[in-house]
Amino acid sequence: MGDKVISWELGQWEIPKLPFSARFLVERGVQKRTLSAIVNQVRERWKDSGYSLDAEELNAFALEILQAKTL
Questions:
Q1: What count of Cα atoms within 13 Å lies in the side-chain half-sphere of residue 12?
Q2: Which of 19, 29, 9 is nearest to 59 (CA)?
Q3: DSSP conformation class of 19
Q4: Cα angle 12, 43, 7; round to 5
C-alpha cells in the first residue's frame, strides 16, 4: 500500500519550470558562446533557492553576471 501512495504522490507532483528565458540574454546582445554558461548559472541559483525565485529575480541575477563579465 505504501508504494501505491508514493507512486500516486509522485504522479501529482509537477516538475518546476525555470521562469527564465535565454531570450532575455539574447535581447541584450549576449553571444551564443557565453549564453549557455550564464543560463546554467541562473538555473543553479534557482535550484539553490529551492525553486522559489521568480523571473524578475532571475533576470536581475543574469544582469549581475553580465555586469561582472564586463568589469
A1: 6
A2: 19
A3: S
A4: 20
Q: Is residue 11 within 8 Å of residue 18, measured between CB atoms?
A: no
Q: Which three cell numbers stand for residue 70?
A: 564586463
For residue 3, what is its C-alpha cell?
508504494
- Whole-angstrom Cα distance, residue 64 to residue 62? 5
The per-residue pLDDT for range 16-34, each reduced to its tens digit, is 899 999 999 999 999 988 9
Q: Which residue has the cell 534557482?
A: 46
Question: Is the torsion defined by CA of 36, 43, 17, 55 positive or negative?
Answer: negative
Q: Please, is 53 exposed, middle or buried when counting C-beta atoms within 10 Å of its C-beta (0-12, 13-18, 19+)?
A: buried
In this structure, the chain runs to a length of 71
